[in-house]
């Protein structure tokens, strides 16, 4: 059981909830803080004080006062009117992360929401009642209004959910679990939708996949080094210490470890003096990707524990401040950075694929073909990798440099952070397929060199890879192989990575 406090949720804990179905609960102290904040809201309503979002309309309607007897209608209208997202739903794992992050943010005690509503959010997480949330429609400032409104619809018994493998009305799932929808009171609708949880949830899932992919890319590239009789001198520790980047030093160390007992690698001057950049510069390029991912991780873990709605309540309600914590700029930048970093993993991987199949660049059979001319082998796999890499370059265009005014120019600068996070996720899926192609080609290359000469750790990957994709003995529909390899990389158990000492 993971206890939420609103203060210290980590990516490792998110991984446990999302991938290992760990249950969550709210700490007693955080629930008390939420209850105290709620008392402040009720006092504001009873005194008819003019406070944005509590006794006024929203956005450009912030100057319109709302009577006490209409506060429930105000919140209900807010949710219904803002639930206008479009497009395919977020992956279920992302929507679940969204619910968890929203609960954690509300537990900070600045939002004025009843503990009952937080309990219902936690129910959704623990019972795997996953809101159906369209991906498109957020500007990434004023919060992720449209996506989070679809989340809030579920709490009030409207909208749809994914439940036990089906897409059904939320009320039906509630009835099966014996729980009840809530009626939103003053400020509660606004507190639920005014936040960055859509972009952050998408970013969390993207980061966790990108982190695993970054480790896998080093192991796959190590097998490529063996397939090309790569030179190990470039990975010598002193070379990387001389530059000083921690992540570069660590990447080189892992490559050395993976290939420490290989009989397929060479030294300077044995076959050639130096390798091409796509081999020689793996620590520099992959290490730079790790630098970016470390930055992304830092920003995500801050945002996961942030109060991002508006207004925020301080001093037991004596101070209520309309600010801009809902603005997604920090996450927008982080997601754009992750896009570029992961796209570069695909870029350099595609160049290694070319070196594996191009007879002008190696001494292997052309295109790794089992029968030159009659069988095309991996020829078109490289086309696919090149296509995916090119698509990544378009997706990597920074979303955060764009802004379109909204709400009658009241909200005149927005982050587009949710678009950035969605595009980052697409790039990660594309990059995994590129690395899957490199894995297929590298396995074929080491077979020509002699599998028995492989390093013990790359041999483990080879054996795992051959469970996914058989050796190329004749041409077949390689699309199926690529998807199987990519799916295998995505589902690769953490125990396997730990077996290789990738994850301690």
Q: Write down the secondary-structure element order.
A: EHEHHEHHEEHEEHHHHHHHEEHHHHHH
Give the low-confidence spans.
none
How many H/I helical runs? 19
State the share of residues found in helices, binned by percent. 55-70%
User: What characterizes the major β-sheet?
Assistant: 3 strands, antiparallel
What keywords describe this structure?
Fumarase C, Chain B, domain 1, 19 helices, mainly alpha, Fumarase C, Chain A, domain 2, 504 residues, two-stranded parallel sheet
Structure explained in plain terms:
The protein is elongated and about 85 Å long. The strands form four sheets. It has a three-stranded antiparallel sheet with strand order 4-6-7. A two-stranded parallel sheet has the order 1-2. A two-stranded antiparallel sheet has the order 3-5. It is built from 19 helices and nine strands. The chain folds into two domains: 2-195, Orthogonal Bundle (Fumarase C, Chain B, domain 1), CATH 1.10.275.10; 203-308 and 322-403 and 412-499, Fumarase/aspartase (Central domain) (Fumarase C, Chain A, domain 2), CATH 1.20.200.10. With 504 residues, it is mostly helical. The model has no long low-confidence stretch (mean pLDDT 93). This is Histidine ammonia-lyase. Its EC number is 4.3.1.3. It comes from Heyndrickxia shackletonii. Its main location: cytoplasm.
């Amino acid at each position: 059981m993971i206890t939420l406090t609103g203060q210290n949720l980590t990516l490792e804990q998110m991984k446990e909830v999302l991938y290992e179905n760990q249950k969550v609960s709210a700490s007693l102290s955080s629930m008390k803080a939420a209850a105290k904040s709620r008392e402040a809201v009720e006092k504001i309503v009873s005194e008819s004080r003019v406070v944005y979002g509590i006794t006024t309309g929203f956005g450009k309607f912030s100057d319109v006062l709302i009577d006490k007897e209409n506060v429930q209608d105000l919140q209900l209208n807010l949710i219904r009117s803002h639930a206008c997202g479009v497009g395919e739903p977020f992956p279920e794992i992302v929507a679940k992360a969204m619910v968890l992050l929203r609960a954690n943010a509300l537990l900070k005690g600045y939002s004025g929401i009843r503990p009952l509503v937080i309990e219902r959010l936690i129910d959704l997480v623990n019972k795997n009642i996953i809101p159906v949330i369209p991906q498109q429609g957020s500007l990434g400032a004023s919060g992720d209004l449209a996506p989070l409104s679809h989340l809030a619809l579920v709490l009030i018994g409207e909208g749809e959910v994914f439940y036990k493998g089906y897409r059904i009305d939320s009320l039906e799932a509630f009835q099966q679990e014996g729980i009840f929808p809530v009626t939103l009171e003053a400020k509660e609708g606004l507190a639920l939708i005014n936040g960055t949880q859509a972009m952050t949830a998408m970013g969390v899932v993207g980061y966790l996949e990108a982190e695993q992919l970054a480790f896998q890319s080093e192991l796959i590239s190590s097998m490529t080094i063996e397939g090309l009789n790569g030179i190990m001198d470039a990975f010598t520790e002193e070379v990387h210490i001389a530059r000083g980047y921690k992540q570069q030093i660590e990447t080189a160390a892992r490559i050395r470890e993976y290939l420490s007992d290989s009989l397929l690698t060479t030294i300077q001057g044995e076959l050639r003096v130096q390798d091409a950049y796509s081999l020689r510069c793996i620590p520099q390029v992959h290490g730079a990707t790790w630098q970016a991912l470390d930055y992304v991780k830092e920003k995500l873990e801050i945002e996961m524990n942030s109060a991002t709605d508006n207004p925020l309540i301080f001093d037991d309600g004596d101070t209520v401040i309309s600010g801009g914590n809902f603005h997604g700029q920090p996450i927008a930048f982080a997601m754009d950075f992750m896009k570029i970093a992961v796209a570069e993993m695909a870029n350099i991987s595609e160049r290694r694929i070319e070196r594996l199949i191009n007879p002008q660049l190696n001494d292997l059979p052309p295109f790794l073909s089992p029968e030159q001319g009659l069988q095309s082998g991996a020829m078109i796999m490289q086309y696919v990798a090149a296509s995916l890499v090119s698509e990544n370059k378009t997706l990597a265009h920074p979303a955060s440099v764009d802004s379109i005014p909204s709400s009658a120019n009241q909200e005149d600068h927005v982050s587009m952070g949710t678009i950035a996070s969605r595009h980052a996720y697409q790039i990660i899926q594309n990059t995994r397929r590129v690395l899957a192609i490199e894995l297929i080609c590298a396995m074929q290359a080491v077979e020509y060199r002699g599998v028995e000469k492989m390093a013990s750790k790359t041999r483990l990957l080879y054996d795992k890879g051959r469970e996914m994709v058989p050796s190329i003995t004749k041409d077949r529909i390689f699309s199926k192989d690529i998807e199987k390899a990519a799916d295998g990389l995505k589902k690769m158990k953490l125990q396997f990575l730990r077996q290789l000492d990738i994850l301690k």
